[in-house]
Amino acid sequence: MSTPNIIFIDTNIFRGVGFNFSAARIDAIKEVAKRSKITLIIPKPVEIEIKRHMHNMASENVAALKAVNSKSFLLKKLNFWHLNIYSGKELVNELYKGLLADYDEFLTLFEVERLDYSELDMTNVMRCWEFHEPPFSVKKPNEFIDAISLSIIQQYQKSIRSRVAIISGDGDLKSACEVSSELVHFENILAFSESHNPDVNRIISIKRALSRSSDITKAIHSTFLKYKFNYEFGWDAHISDLKIDSKHSRLNEFYVLSYSPTGCTAVFSGNISVNFEVSYQDIEIDDIELDCPQLIEKSWGTSVAVSGAITFIMDEKFERVVDLIDLKFDVDEYTLP
User: Fold this and answer.
1) pLDDT-flagged residues of the chain (< 50)
2) pLDDT at position 240
3) DSSP per residue over 135-182, as a string?
4) Which residues lie across from 164 on neighbouring strands?
5) Integer Cα distance of 306 and 308 in angstroms
6) Backbone phi and psi for residue 143, each to the nearest 5 degrees, phi listed first
7) 22-53, pLDDT tens digit by residue?
8) Burial class of residue 313 (count of CB atoms within 10 Å of its CB; 0-12, 13-18, 19+)
9) Rounded to 5 degrees, what are φ and ψ at 43?
10) Phi/psi of residue 171, each to 5°?
């Protein structure tokens, strides 16, 4: 059965990439939208939720700047320091406007259908709440935003008599889709984008080759080490001997965005484990304040969630990776531990 061309993208998908509409995971659906006419349906409560999250994100970033600003008189001397130019509220508004502009640009790729509350079946919503039916559950009894949005989508689906793809990492929405043949669930944008490719066997062959390629894994690990790292041990922390722990690092399943004899593009995600030595001054140990700072030296290990995109060339049968052309991560700065 073909993949629907009418889709709903849950807020958690955008939140998962930090509302970065240039992330490789978002690029996947952009490629589909270039090839096919895709209708994106947006229930009103979801759009409110998306914009609220973007505004909160802008506020949190400005709060972080204020925290730094309060601890450094030197920053206040910089003419170009943002908090010398804008008030906190003005800076939040500037960041929020930037996020809105990116969101609006993303929407231009689709035929957008905004759905208001006229399509809402509140009786069914309350019945689902009463009997703990998805998207409600015993553990999550107050999922009214999801339930209202789902009801609006279901009523819309009935009016157009066409299947709808629900792209969401929410397990309760997945459960709701499982009891409906007209709602098709996808865990993420990448899974939806792959399903839109007509040559499934070719996709499987490429993914198998990627998972077997030690060169690809090594390239991802070595590129990761070249990025900039922030450390939460304090400004005076000294880090040395930073190494990848290959045994505990895992790259999840690759998703293929496009392929041709001249080059293929895929998205990767996973966790990279690192070990390093750290030394820093600490003024308290086990919540007990010391009379003078004490030098702390220790070995440390942590795991970092990563994602990005690779461009590569396959052999003629698309069974083996022969060359890596480009590799980029979704972010270029990581915080350890």
Assistant:
1) none
2) 82
3) T--SS-TT-HHHHHHHHHHHHHHHHHT--EEEE---HHHHHHHHT-TT
4) 183
5) 7
6) -85, 55
7) 887 888 888 889 888 999 999 999 999 999 99
8) middle
9) -65, 145
10) -65, -30
Contact 155, 119 (CB under 8 A): yes
Amino acid at 297: E
Half-sphere exposure of 267 (CA within 13 A, CB side): 21
Helix (H, G, I), strand (E, B) or coil at 62: helix
**Max Cα-Cα span within the chain:** 73
Token pair for 76: 């206040």
138 CB burial (10 A radius; 0-12, 13-18, 19+): exposed
Which run of H or E residues covers position 124?
A: helix 122-130
pLDDT for position 284:
59
pLDDT of the residue at 56:
94
253's tokens: 């399943």
With b for 16 or more beta-carbon neighbours within 10 A and e for fewer, the 231-262 pattern comes to bebeeebeeeeeebeeeebebeebbbbbbeee
Spatial CA neighbour of 330 closest among 12, 13, 16 = 16
Residue-level pLDDT at 221: 93
| Pair 321, 215: CB distance under 8 Å | yes
- Say whether the peptide bond before residue 135 is cis (omega within 30 degrees of 0): yes
CA 119 – CA 193 distance, rounded (Å): 28
Rounded CA gap, 169 and 166, in Å? 10
Please identify which residue in the block is written with the tokens 């709701």: 176
pLDDT for 68: 75
Q: Which two tokens mark 15?
A: 């939140």
Q: Distance between CA atoms of 145 and 59, rounded to whole angstroms? A: 23
Q: Residues 6 or more apart from 237 whose CB is under 8 A from it?
A: 231, 278, 279, 280
Q: What are the angstrom distances between the C-alpha of 200 and each of 30, 167, 205, 292?
A: 19, 20, 9, 64
Q: Tokens 């998908």 identify what position?
A: 13
Q: How many beta carbons lie within 10 A of that of residue 106, not counting itself?
A: 19
- Spatial separation of the C-alpha atoms in residues 35 and 48, rounded to whole Å: 29
Burial class (CB in 10 A: 0-12, 13-18, 19+), 44: middle
- Cα–Cα distance, 71 to 147 (Å, whole number): 45
